[in-house]
């Protein structure tokens, strides 16, 4: 039996520890479905020192939600190595400081109630849930470095939930590809921004062209605003 209740609130106690001495160490980095967010991709491709285009080609699969025409990016597992993550090694995650949101949250996920979280697996699959180490859940989430990830995921959720953007993506030829480019393939999008002078579509005061050239997060912020402008104009 797990030491944790089904749903845990931010002020509740959460019992958990993951460390190299545990029998299941790195098992959760194998044959797993992980969707990557735009912010995840920026962090990982920069850590690896490769372009977003190369990262997406080598390490991800592109998916599509048919009802909303929303493209998504899934981490590819290594088929030639027992479907293990490309970045897992004996000592654990090789991208630990830049690991994606889902990996930071594991073994928890949002539960149906607001501000509560629940283990997505039981303690037979994640032995760390049997550990005696007690955390206030709020402290554990902070310890996982989730804050910037949550902030960017919130912005991305607002874009995804924007009805004008959704109907543009569903109705405009090429809309899905443009959305994918601007949200996920930022280095390629940057080329288009300067080639097509896309910054001219967004109010001048909110665009710093020098930053767009050098700062991926400034470019991502621009991408979200620009997609809304495009959707409003169609
Ligand atoms: S299954 Fe749980 S305890 Fe085991 S390595 Fe993964 S997170 Fe850690
Ligand atoms: S990125 Fe790191 S934590 Fe996430 S599945 Fe791969 S090795 Fe595991």
Structure, explained:
By secondary structure, the chain is an alpha+beta fold. The chain has 2 domains: 8-146, no CATH class; 162-233, no CATH class. The protein is 42% helix and 16% strand. The strands form 5 sheets. A 3-stranded antiparallel β-sheet has the order 1-11-10, with no helix packed on it. It has a 3-stranded antiparallel β-sheet with strand order 3-5-4. A two-stranded antiparallel sheet has the order 2-12. The model has no long low-confidence stretch (mean pLDDT 94). The chain binds iron/sulfur cluster (2 copies).
The biggest sheet amounts to: 3 strands, antiparallel
How much of the sequence is in beta strands?
Answer: 15-25%
Report the principal-axis shape: globular
Give the bound compounds.
iron/sulfur cluster
Tell me, rounded to a whole number, the average pLDDT: 94
Query: What distance lies between the first and last C-alpha atoms, to the nearest angstrom?
Result: 55 Å
- Domain module tally: 2
State the strand order across the main sheet.
Answer: 1-11-10
What class do helices, strands and sheet pairing give?
alpha+beta
How many strands? 12
**Element order: H for helix, E for strand:** EEEHHEEEEEEHEEEHHHHHHH
Count of DSSP-assigned helices = 10
Brief characterization of the structure:
The chain has 234 residues and is an alpha+beta fold.
Features:
alpha+beta, binds iron/sulfur cluster, 234 residues, 2 domains, 3-stranded antiparallel beta sheet, 10 helices
């Amino acid at each position: 039996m797990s030491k944790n209740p089904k749903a845990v609130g931010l002020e509740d106690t959460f019992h958990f520890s993951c460390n190299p001495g545990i029998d299941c160490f790195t098992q959760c980095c194998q044959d797993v479905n992980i969707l990557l967010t735009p912010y995840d991709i920026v962090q990982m491709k920069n850590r690896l020192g490769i372009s977003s285009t190369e990262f997406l080609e080598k390490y991800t699969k592109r998916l599509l939600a048919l009802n909303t025409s929303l493209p998504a990016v899934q981490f590819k597992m290594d088929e030639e190595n027992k479907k293990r993550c490309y970045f897992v090694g004996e000592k654990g995650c090789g991208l630990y400081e830049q690991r994606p949101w889902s990996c930071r949250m594991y073994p928890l996920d949002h539960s149906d109630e607001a501000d509560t979280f629940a283990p997505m697996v039981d303690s037979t699959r994640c032995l760390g849930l049997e550990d005696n180490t007690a955390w206030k859940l709020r402290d554990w989430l902070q310890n996982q470095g989730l804050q910037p990830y949550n902030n960017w995921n919130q912005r991305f959720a607002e874009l995804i939930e924007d009805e004008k953007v959704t109907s543009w993506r569903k109705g405009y030829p090429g809309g899905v590809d443009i959305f994918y480019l601007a949200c996920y393939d930022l280095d390629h999008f940057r080329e288009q921004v300067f080639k097509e002078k896309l910054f001219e579509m967004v109010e001048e005061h909110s665009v710093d062209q020098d930053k767009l050239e050098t700062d991926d997060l400034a470019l991502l912020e621009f991408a979200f605003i620009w997609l809304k402008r495009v959707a409003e104009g169609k």
